[in-house]
Design goal:
One of its GO terms (molecular function) is sodium channel activity. This protein is an alpha+beta fold and 358 residues long. The protein has ten helices and eleven strands. It is flat.
């Protein structure tokens, strides 16, 4: 197994050169196993260095060199080095099972990644909440209390059912014996597929068998991260200068990683609501806004009613009778030829009430 200083030929950050010895001691951590079957060196700066300018010359530059004699007995040509950009704060088990989408460094070629940071939030599970911040809080609480409970549950299931464990588990201090290729293909392979994050929420096929589906469903009740950190950006491939590659059969490659933007994006995955959930959501919003409108109307109309009622009350009034001084005479107009009727009293006869017509 190669040591760090045997393949790190040059190290540079923000234009300042660092010797391979210092680079390995400061930034590289011991090997960990991966689900892909390989071994990884971890380059973790532990927040001791940071990029201060958006310039290609201000990023991290690593030149890797592997002697031809170290692989020529097994390989005619070196297959290259895979680089995974992941969150450095992840625990070893998550690094081993969640490292995908690698960048492959080929011999006599350089790779330049101009990246930006992105959060991918999965809100398809109810326990992750409804926002990116709530998912981050759930992860923070879950990692501190349960860690990689889902992956550990699957590994324990593999150990119980298949009586073996994958190779990378031996590098994370999990004492057990490793499976053979036959055991892997016949038993463990199906379970290991659901260790990958892309299959965490995938519906289980009926062809997998009742026992298998029950085992995976039981493990899915454990904590699974709601948010992960990604580093995306355009990748430039180029040939290394002739002065580095001429007259040598050694494997030589160069990696440059630099932030193209300091903006952080957040991609949120949400579940598609069912018809019942959609109706419930519409009904909830109608009831909510009706209640809010009613409360606002009550707040506005109640003081008005109080004010209007206080102004419309009629109190007792004093009636007075005034006399008219020097009243003007009242003139009565009548027909002088019309007979004047006598006053009506109890002794008045009908002839007097209805006199003959003239």
């Amino acid at each position: 197994m190669l040591q760090c200083q045997e393949f790190v030929n040059d190290c540079k950050f923000q234009g300042t050169s660092i010797t391979p010895f210092e680079c390995c001691n400061m930034f590289f951590q011991p090997l960990i196993g991966t689900q892909n079957g390989g071994l990884c060196w971890l380059f973790n700066h532990n927040n001791t260095i940071s990029q201060s300018a958006l310039d290609l010359s201000k990023g991290l530059e690593l030149v890797f060199s592997i002697a031809h004699n170290s692989f020529s007995n097994f390989l005619h040509k070196h297959p290259g080095i895979d680089v995974y950009l992941v969150d450095g704060n992840l625990e070893a088990l998550r690094l081993a099972t969640e490292s995908f989408d690698s960048i492959t460094l080929k011999d006599k070629q350089g790779v330049r990644l101009r990246m930006h940071k992105e959060y991918e939030t999965d809100l398809r599970r109810f326990e992750c909440g409804a926002t990116s911040s709530s998912a981050k809080a759930v992860d923070s609480k879950g990692v501190n209390s349960q860690g990689s409970a889902y992956v550990l549950c699957l590994l324990q299931t593999i150990l119980r059912v298949c009586e073996c464990l994958p190779l990378f588990v031996s590098y994370i201090q999990y004492n057990t014996h490793i499976y053979s290729v036959l055991q892997y293909e016949q038993c463990a392979k199906s379970y290991m597929e659901y260790v990958k994050p892309i299959h965490w929420n995938e519906e289980l096929s009926s062809r997998l068998g009742v026992t298998f589906r029950q085992n995976v469903d039981n493990c899915r009740r454990n904590f699974r991260p709601c948010q992960k950190t990604l580093f995306h950006g355009p990748i430039d491939y180029y040939d290394l200068p002739v002065e580095l590659t001429q007259n040598t059969q050694d494997f030589i490659t160069k990696l440059t990683v630099v932030y193209e933007s300091l903006m952080v994006t957040d991609t949120i995955r949400t579940r598609s609501p069912s018809f019942y959930e959609l109706l419930s959501y519409i009904g909830y919003n109608i009831a909510l806004w009706f209640a809010i409108g009613h409360i606002i109307w009550s707040i506005i109309i109640t003081p008005c009613n109080w004010f209007c009622q206080s102004n419309s009350k009629v109190g007792p009034t004093n009636l007075s009778i005034s006399t008219v001084k020097n009243p003007s005479p009242v003139v009565t107009l009548g027909n002088p030829n019309r007979q004047q009727l006598a006053p009506i009293d109890a002794n008045t006869s009908s002839q007097e009430l209805f006199p003959e017509q003239i």
